[in-house]
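Give me the 3D structure for 4Fe-4S dicluster domain-containing protein.
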Amino acid sequence: MPWVNKKKCVSCKKCVKKCPVDAIEMVKGKALIEEDKCINCGKCIKICPVKAILKDKDIIDFTIDSNVKAAKASISNYKGKKAKKRAIKSQMRQLKRQQKIFQGTMKKLKRIKL
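Predicted structure for 4Fe-4S dicluster domain-containing protein (114 residues):
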């Protein structure tokens, strides 16, 4: 499923015009892909002049980079190496908790009988 990096989107509307199933609309001047309509053809990714539309696998790298950048910004407020290390460890504990939640959710979703 393609995803729009709203910071990069320049509101050119080329993706809106190119989408064969009208799955892209403009919201507050930025492209928004409607997941339930999108057929994952990739035409929007190819047409975007500023590379604001990303593939699923690119979202993972983008999100990781964003998380690390936010963590670095957060720890810059702390004074001293020990305080910074504690802040990083705290963020890592939070991420591990989220990971357990995701893993548990995935297990239970696999067990759903249809």
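The chain has a mean pLDDT of 94. Let me know if you want a second pass.
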